[in-house]
Amino acid sequence: MDLRRQIALVKAWLPLLIASVVLSAAAAFLVSTQLPKTYEARATLIVGQSLSGVNPDYTQLLASQRLSTTYASIATTRPNLDVVIRQLGLGMTSEELSKRVGAAAPLESTLLTITAQDADPSRAAAIANALADQVVAASPAIQGRQADLQKSIDAELKATQVQITAMQSEVDRLNGLASPRPADLTTLDTIQGRLITLRSTYASILSFSSGSAANLLSVVEPAVAPITPISPKPLLNTLVAAILGLLLAAGLLSALEYLDDKVKDPDAVQAVANLSTLGTITRIKGDSGRSEIYRLVTLLYPRSAAAEAFRTLRTNLEFASVDSSIRTLLVTSSAPGEGKTTTASNLAVVFAQAGRRVLLVDADLRKPGVHAVFDLPNSHGLTTLLRSDEVSLTAIVNGTEQANLRILTTGPIPPNPAELLGSQRMQTILERLKADADIVVFDSPPLQVVTDSAILGSLVDGTLFVVDADRSRRATVRLGREALSKTGATVLGAVINRIPVRNHSAYANYYGDDGSELRPEKRPRGPDTSHERVAP
Questions:
Q1: H or E element in which residue 371 lies
Q2: DSSP 3-state assignment of 262?
Q3: How far apart, in whole angstroms, are the C-alpha atoms of residue 285 and residue 129?
Q4: Residue 148 and residue 137: Cα distance in Å, rounded?
Q5: 3 state SS of 243
Q6: What is the distance between the alpha carbons of residues 100 and 97, in angstroms, rounded to a whole number?
Q7: Which residues pair with 333 in a beta bridge?
Q8: Mode of pairing for the β-strands spanning 439-443 and 358-362
Q9: DSSP states of 403-415 as a string?
Q10: How far apart are CA 480 and CA 459, in angstroms?
Q11: % residues pLDDT > 90 (the chain)
Q12: What is the 8-class DSSP label of residue 295?
């Protein structure tokens, strides 16, 4: 579809698109506000001594990065989860808790992040901190080193540090004496010697302990109770739902439009049948159970938009044959039920209202309908003329309440309609009909059903091709046009029938209605041509 067609499609279905967006957004917002809230707390740990070391060792840094992924893997194991459940008294299993917690370690970082989700923000923080403590407590066992050995090393470091601090204080006191005694100087030398020894011992113990510095684990950011829930997010969900609703509706409409092969506008008529559109007729509403005469909108509803569309069609037909006047006009369509009989009848009325002597001939010798529209008998008609040359045209032509309009029905249905319409006698009758009227309008069978219309199209001055916007298919219209082309028929153009009223808003606004609300109680008693003027 080209851009213009897409814009027209959007305009036509704009209310539906807006409704889809509003309904999707409203539904998402209501659902989001009803869903339970979930809070997420996170605790951050660091592996190794990359922050506290003055000169971090690159090898230890790489080892810490590798170990962080290992800690992340064991953080959510079942033993750790079971301990957290017992400590916090959580009424759930380890499998249920595993769905609420997680651990992640970036590849190029020594940080480890533990997350916990819960409907209670305080409990979420407690779970994250408890799980972080379990990882810290399990860290010595990762390298296979016993926990009591690490405790012993830490105790030795602490004791040595206490001794160094105490001796340093004594050294400072002795150095601060104004008149030290010889005993004080001896004591100072002894303490300084022991201080050097303690510092050397402390450095050795610390060196042994820092050999495993890459495996040290500490909490750098404990979890706190979050304020804002991570889900649901009503505004985000509403926006996403609105966009998805719009895309879904647009996609559905595009698919329906692509799959719909109906000929609904002049561009489609031009593309499929290579015909100009001479007129567009709005859909005529009404009760299907009422008399056929109510299809004559030009006679019963002369101020309606549909009646004005038929008058526009009449004018366009006159301009379509500006080089030679049309004396005989065939109205046909591709398939049954596309409105050719209604079009031919209303077109005959508007020609008569313009002061032309009009003879409407029902040439559908298989399923006639003109007599039903005008409520006329069908005992005599076109087939009567075809059987005998002695029959007077005046005797079988029916007058109507519309001035200048007469009707020639089909008469008895013959067994061989195509042969009769293509006979020499039909051409002779056609000349008699032309001599008796200013314009002869023929209603004919559908082109796809029989060949009658194609045969008759080669005999008349021009053919009007009726397309139903509600049911005419591209393939059917194309075949009907080809059938007329094969017989050499002069096709003046097409008329699109049953166009939706919204596409004729200009007519409807100017004339006040589309003719669907007028409900006359009885048939008019006489012609009303006061609103018409004779065409030049």
A1: helix 370-373
A2: strand
A3: 74
A4: 12
A5: helix
A6: 5
A7: 466
A8: parallel
A9: TTEEEE---SPPS
A10: 17
A11: 27
A12: G
- DSSP per-residue letters across 182-229: HHHHHHHHHHHHHHHHHHHHHHHHHHHHHTTGGG-EEEEE-----SS-
pLDDT at 54 over 50: no
**Cβ(390)–Cβ(396) under 8 Å?**
no
How far is it, in rounded angstroms, from Cα 492 to Cα 376?
A: 30
Tokens of 117: 């989700």
The answer to whether the CB of 234 falls within 8 A of the CB of 32 is: yes
Q: How far apart are CA 467 and CA 464, in angstroms?
A: 10
Give yes or no for a contact between 38 and 231, defined as CB atoms under 8 angstroms apart.
Answer: yes
Dig out the tokens for 151 from the structure: 């405790």
User: What is the average pLDDT score of the chain?
Assistant: 81
Report the alpha-carbon distance of residue 30 to residue 22 in Å, rounded.
12
The CA–CA distances, whole Å, from 501 to 5, 310, 426 equal 18, 15, 40
CA angle 63, 64, 67 (to 5 degrees): 85
pTM exceeds 0.85 for this model: no
Please give the biggest Cα pair distance in the chain: 168
Please work out, in degrees rounded to the nearest 5, the angle formed at the alpha carbon of residue 349 by the alpha carbons of 433 and 355.
Answer: 75
| 102, 300, 370, 375, 518 from 521: Cα distances, Å | 80, 11, 22, 16, 10
| Per-residue model confidence as pLDDT tens digits over 482-512 | 988 888 888 999 999 988 765 554 444 444 4
Q: What pLDDT, on a 0 to 100 scale, did the predictor assign at position 10?
A: 81
Residue 311 clears pLDDT 90, i.e. is over it: yes
3-state SS assignment for residue 354: coil
**Sign of torsion, CA 379 380 386 389?**
positive
